[in-house]
Amino acid sequence: MNLDEHGAAHLPGAAAPFLSQLQGVLADLPSDQAGVRLRGVPGLGPLLGADALGAAITERLGADAKPVRAILFDKSAGTNWTLGWHQDRTIAVARREAVPGFGPWSTKAGMPHVEPPFALIERMLTLRIHLDPVDAENAPLQVAPGSHRLGRIPEARIESVVRHCGTAICLAESGDAWLYATPILHASSAAVSPRRRRVLQIDFSADALPKPLAWLGV
After folding, report:
1. Domain range summary for the chain, segments of one domain joined by +
2. Which of 1, 100, 129, 146 is most buried (CB neighbours < 10 A)?
3. Does an H or E element contain 18, and which?
4. DSSP letter at 208?
5. Interval 142-151: pLDDT, tens
6. Dihedral, CA atoms, 50, 112, 90, 92, nearest 10 degrees?
7. Is the per-residue pLDDT at 67 higher than 80?
8. CB-based contacts of 25: which residues, under 8 Å, 6+ apart?
9. Is residue 133 reached through a cis peptide bond, with omega within 30 degrees of 0 on the bond before it?
10. Better-predicted residue by pLDDT, 197 or 128
11. Which is nearest to 194 in space by CA: 135, 152, 128?
């Protein structure tokens, strides 16, 4: 698959040179939660820069690209969940502000989130860094290739869009990365053979938000 046509691209070994550093930075985070939203984790920011894990992002979004949200997913036998087909439609911001076109609002792990105009989501990229290998039985992410080009997809149309686009399974080795167009439809089943499957997911944007809104960042 390639990013422009399908909305997803496999980057084998792209995170391998930074994997030991990344594991050290994330070592003290809770391991009994399905997902941990990251903010202010010491040492994480530099690893996401243009001269490290963010290189593939800067190449595509330019020098203004920055990490704007990070989540560590930790799937195991104890946290073996299912995620239905959906688009990521919200962003994390520093505080709630009334700006036309931004809403509705929600709070996730104490962090304010808002749905922006969808054109902003369409300009974003998402990087998923695999700390552990993911095979077909260990809950790989599934994507609907090409769905990133269809705009904001109403909930009632998601099933038919997935049938039309088909599905692709995103397998990975430890140290691999996957790069996605942020609005791509994606899902994850529960693992058939649960093993630890840690994935660091980072959303990137090169846009500035309209004031007084500001990105929360990582």
Report:
1. 3-205
2. 129
3. none
4. P
5. 999 999 999 9
6. 0
7. yes
8. 41, 42, 43, 44, 47
9. no
10. 128
11. 135
Tokens of 200: 């660091």
Q: Which of 142, 97, 129 is nearest to 26 (CA)?
A: 129
Q: Which residues face 202 on adjacent strands? A: 70, 127
- What would the two tokens of residue 198 be? 């840690």
Between the CA of residue 86 and those of 10, 92, 217, what are the distances in Å? 20, 18, 23
Residue with tokens 């997935």: 162
- Per-residue pLDDT tens over the stretch 169-212: 999 999 999 999 999 999 988 767 767 788 999 999 999 999 99
State pTM to two decimals. 0.95
Which residue in 207, 202, 214 sits closest to 55, CA to CA? 202
Q: If you search the block for the tokens 């099933």, which residue do you land on? A: 159
Annotation: CATH topology of 3-205:
Jelly Rolls (2.60.120)
